[in-house]
Every structure is written in structure tokens, then in C-alpha cells.
């Protein structure tokens, strides 16, 4: 099944590579796989591939450096676009559909840049798994007609990792690094200084050996999410972790007993969505 999906992806990328393309490029595994493959096809066609990385206040600083490295590995031209989210009032209170407004803001910037370069095809790395999660940004991608070749090929995250290892991508095992605003509860003001501090805390924990880390802030309580099989390492390093987190300004520090889980800030939204769907189904049944 994975091989069949890979062939579908390759067919689509070969078609897209007939003209110059640009990719919203974070240096993560999804966009890196697209870049790796389409760079090869573009070389065959004599077209150009631009890997465009957003330098923003809402994304981890390490993204830019890693993206530059992977773009060089793939032989693509790397472009950095600086985007200031503070100029977009729609996202500053972190509404539940913040991702929609943020993605729209970023991709409008990318599309405008692409037009100036006479680039017709703009693509990004949404995968099939994203469709089953709370991802309001997908609506912006669709509205702006940005291509999502991984989703078009119905590739899951696990399948993408398998393929990325096959092509020896250096980021094949890199954990996802979502927007830093996911560390804050919805409908609270986004404090960019706080986000920088959370980013610093996550970098510190990764340097201690924690593979996947999220620092979620709930008022005065810092909730640390790591993989449950690394709890013993956390207990071993507990005192230095507490000391560092207090140095960063956090007074109440907790370890989430459930461990890391993607989208943990979306739990209530997903529950509300499921309830809405269930009620709609009941009402439709009654109408019948």
C-alpha cells in the first residue's frame, strides 16, 4: 500500500515539476519529503524549486536553521520570508480558529512572493492524518488553492517516515514542531515573550535527552508533556529541570501523567465537535 501511494505522489510531483514551484518549507519531515522528490524531477525538467521558510514569532527558532540544511541537501534554492504575526489582529487573542487566520496570513504572503517570481505552483505538507485532527488551517490552504501532494496521495505520517528513511532524509526521525501558540490555551492573549521563554525551555529539555517535548502554560501552571517511556529520565533529572524552569520564571511545574499527545489543547474542541456531529445525526434520523 505504501509503495502504491509513493507512486501516486511521484506522479503528481512529476507533473507539478514541469514548471517552477515553491514549497512552504519548515524543514519537517513532510515538506522535506516533497522537496527531496520534486527537486529530482525539476532537475530532469530544467525547472526551479524554491524552498520557502517563514521566519516568524510563532515558530521555533530552530526551524530556520534545519530548513536551510535540508534545502542544501536537496539541492533546492532556500528562501526565508520574515512574517510578523503581531500585524495580524485576528490571531492575537489565540481564537479557536487561530490556525486558519495564521495559515491564511502566511500563505497569502507566500503566494504574493511567488507571483513576483512568476511561480504558478505553491505547495505545502499537509498529510492524510491531519484530516482526522483539529486543523482549521487546512481550510485556508484549500481556499487559497495551495497544493497538498501528500494529502492528495493519501499518505499517513507513519508512511511518510518509512519513505523518508528510504530516501535517507536527515530529518526522517525529526519530531513535529508545531506553531508555538499551541502551548497556550485558546482565547488568551498571545504573549510573544512568554512563547520565547517556552521555546527556550523546550530546547533545554531536548538537550537533556527528551525527544518530544511540549511546555503548555495554563495561567501560572507549566504542564510538561514528554513521552511516557521517558518518565524515568524526567525523575532522574527532576531537580535540574525544576531549577531551570524556575529560572525561566515558572513557579508551578507539573509533569503530565498522560505523556505527550498531539493536540492536547484541542481536547474540549474535539469533544464539542463530536457532540455536535452526534446531535446532527440524531436530528437527521428523526427527520427521516
Radius of gyration: 20 Å
Gap between N and C termini, in Å?
Answer: 39 Å
Overall mean pLDDT stands at 91
Instruction: Estimate the helix proportion, in percent.
Output: 40-55%
Low-confidence segments, ≥5 residues, pLDDT <50?
A: 274-284
Task: Please list the strands of the largest sheet in the order they lie side by side.
Answer: 3-2-1-4
The SSE string, one letter per element, is HEHEHEHEHHHHEEHHEH
Based on Cα principal axes, name the global outline: globular
What is the SS-derived class?
alpha/beta
The total of helices stands at: 11
Largest sheet: 4 strands, parallel
Task: Note down, in words, how this protein is organized.
With 288 residues, this protein is α/β, with parallel strands linked by helices. 48% of the residues lie in helices and 12% in strands. The chain contains 11 helices and 7 strands. The chain has helices spanning 2-16, 29-45, 62-74, 98-116, 137-143, 149-152, 157-166, 192-207, 231-236, 238-247, 267-287, and strands at 21-24, 49-55, 77-82, 121-123, 213-218, 221-226, 252-255. A 4-stranded parallel beta sheet has the order 3-2-1-4, with helices on both faces. It has a 3-stranded mixed beta sheet with strand order 5-6-7. A hairpin with a 2-residue loop joins strand 5 and strand 6 (221-226). Helix 1 (2-16) packs across helix 2, helix 2 (29-45) packs parallel to helix 3 and helix 2 (29-45) packs across helix 7. The two termini are 39 Å apart. Mean pLDDT is 91; it is low at 274-284.
Amino acid at each position: 500500500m505504501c509503495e502504491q501511494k509513493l507512486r501516486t505522489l511521484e506522479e503528481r510531483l512529476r507533473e507539478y515539476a514541469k514548471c517552477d514551484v515553491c514549497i512552504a518549507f519548515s524543514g519537517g519531515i513532510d515538506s522535506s519529503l516533497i522537496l527531496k522528490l520534486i527537486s529530482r524531477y525539476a532537475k530532469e525538467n530544467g525547472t526551479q524549486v524554491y524552498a520557502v521558510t517563514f521566519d516568524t514569532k510563532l515558530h521555533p527558532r530552530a526551524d530556520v536553521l534545519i530548513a536551510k540544511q535540508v534545502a542544501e541537501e536537496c539541492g533546492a534554492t532556500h528562501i526565508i520570508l520574515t512574517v510578523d504575526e503581531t500585524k495580524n489582529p485576528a490571531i492575537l487573542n489565540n481564537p479557536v480558529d487561530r490556525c486558519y487566520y495564521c495559515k491564511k496570513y502566511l500563505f497569502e504572503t507566500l503566494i504574493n512572493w511567488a507571483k513576483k517570481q512568476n511561480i504558478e505552483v505553491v505547495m505545502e505538507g499537509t498529510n492524510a492524518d491531519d484530516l482526522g485532527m483539529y486543523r482549521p488551517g487546512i481550510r485556508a490552504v484549500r481556499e487559497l488553492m495551495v497544493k497538498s501532494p501528500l494529502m492528495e496521495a493519501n499518505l499517513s505520517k507513519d508512511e511518510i517516515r518509512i519513505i523518508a528513511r528510504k530516501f535517507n532524509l536527515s530529518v526522517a526521525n525529526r519530531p513535529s514542531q508545531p506553531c508555538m501558540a499551541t502551548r497556550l490555551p485558546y482565547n488568551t492573549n498571545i504573549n510573544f515573550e512568554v512563547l520565547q521563554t517556552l521555546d527556550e525551555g523546550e530546547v533545554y529539555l531536548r538537550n537533556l535527552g527528551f525527544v518530544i517535548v511540549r511546555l503548555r502554560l495554563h495561567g501560572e501552571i507549566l504542564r510538561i508533556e514528554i513521552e511516557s517511556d521517558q518518565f524515568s529520565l524526567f525523575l532522574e533529572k527532576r531537580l535540574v529541570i525544576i531549577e531551570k524552569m524556575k529560572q525561566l520564571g515558572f513557579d508551578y511545574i507539573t509533569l503530565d501523567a498522560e505523556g505527550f499527545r498531539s493536540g492536547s489543547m484541542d481536547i474540549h474542541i474535539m469533544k464539542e465537535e463530536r457532540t455536535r456531529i452526534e446531535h446532527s445525526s440524531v436530528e437527521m434520523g428523526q427527520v427521516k
